[in-house]
Specification:
Elements (H helix, E strand, L loop, with lengths): L2 H17 L13 H30 L3
Length: 65
């Protein structure tokens, strides 16, 4: 199991919690809850991808050797 997989397992729940404060149903038309859920999942995965890559790049940049 790689460190990247572990970071994804840690960051994805935090992304869900962070995006849970946004009410996507107000952005969409009435009775479009399924599309709002898809957007919620895609944004969570995109945010997790960006955070994990940032953390890995930051770790690599701070290594001296």
């Amino acid at each position: 199991m790689t460190i990247k997989f572990l970071l994804y397992c840690i960051v994805i729940p935090f992304s869900f919690v962070a995006l849970d404060s946004i009410n996507f149903q107000n952005i969409f038309k009435k009775n479009r809850y399924m599309q709002a859920r898809f957007l919620y999942v895609f944004l969570t995965l995109a945010l997790s991808y960006l955070v994990v890559n940032f953390l890995l790049d930051f770790y690599d940049a701070t290594q001296i050797f």
